[in-house]
Amino acid sequence: MKRGIGVLLGLAWALAQGVSLPEPQGPVVEAGSPTVSATFRVQGCARDQRGQVVCALQIQSTARTNQQVTVLHQSVRAISARGFSYPGYLDVEGGQVEANRTVFALPAGARLVGKVVLPKVAAEENFLAALYLGGLEFRGLPIGQAAPAQPAPQAQPQAQTAEGWKATVGPFTLELAGEPALVCCTWVVIPLLVVSNQDARLQIGSNFRMIFPNGIQRTGGEARVPGDNWDFIAGIPMKVFLYIVASSEDEQNDRITYLEFWVHDGKDWQKVVWRDIPWPKKK
């Protein structure tokens, strides 16, 4: 009997020696997404004043184009050290939290601040063994060791000058190049003339905001350049067009009260704000 047990143990040991396994891994606080060109980093988890566990998140785009990201609430979940599973949702600056999903724009090269909110984590929990977010896995997250990061302060908006609607961001000077136009009843197209004082690549985010005198607000869209080449040559101006989601009812207005868009200065995103842009009267 003892001899049989010894043979079995020896056989198990021999088989174990032939098994190829990866090295053990420690905590994971940063991960690259398989579906979005971006890296996600958890900066810490803590309880807020309502008792919710909030994990601060930094999202860094690695793409050269703008992206629209959707994260379903059902894909957000934390597993505590005690083995309990807690559902949650993602909240990102500039995004929209809907009933079943979160949607946000991720401009090319941008860095956004967000948070994973876990509303019903039991008070006795002090450690998250795993946090799942849209196919990403983070591990080894203590609760209460780091306060959630606050959104970075926004740059002061570029004011329009006496010369008209004009702004300078990094090497780029952007100027309104004509009246806005409603195209196919679904887009407001705003023409810009852009020039750079050095060879540089222009990046304009897709998180537009436009408000009319009647109180209607429009958001979202894209920037386009003829030829789709965003590399500017020093001193040579090029036309750029802002396409902002709109409706035929917007023709009733005589101006755009507020226009907001974002331009990358080579290091960070800067907000440009123009006011009271004339709107062509409907003929």
Record keyword descriptors for this entry.
single chain; mainly beta; Immunoglobulin-like; 6-stranded antiparallel beta sheet; 5-stranded antiparallel beta sheet; elongated
In short:
The chain has 283 residues and is mainly beta. The chain has one helix and 24 strands.
Can you put this structure into words, describing what you see?
The protein is mainly beta and 283 residues long. The chain has two domains: 30-142, Immunoglobulin-like; 166-278, Immunoglobulin-like, CATH 2.60.40. Helices cover 6% and strands 47% of the residues. It contains one helix and 24 strands. It has one helix at residues 2-17, and strands spanning 30-32, 38-47, 53-61, 67-72, 76-80, 85-87, 89-92, 96-97, 101-106, 111-118, 127-133, 136-142, 166-169, 172-176, 181-183, 187-196, 200-201, 209-211, 217-219, 221-224, 231-232, 238-245, 255-264, 269-278. The strands form six sheets. Strands 13, 14, 15, 16, 20 and 22 form a six-stranded antiparallel beta sheet that branches. A five-stranded antiparallel beta sheet has the order 1-2-3-10-7, with no helix packed on it. A four-stranded antiparallel beta sheet has the order 6-5-11-12, with no helix packed on it. The N and C termini lie far apart (101 Å).
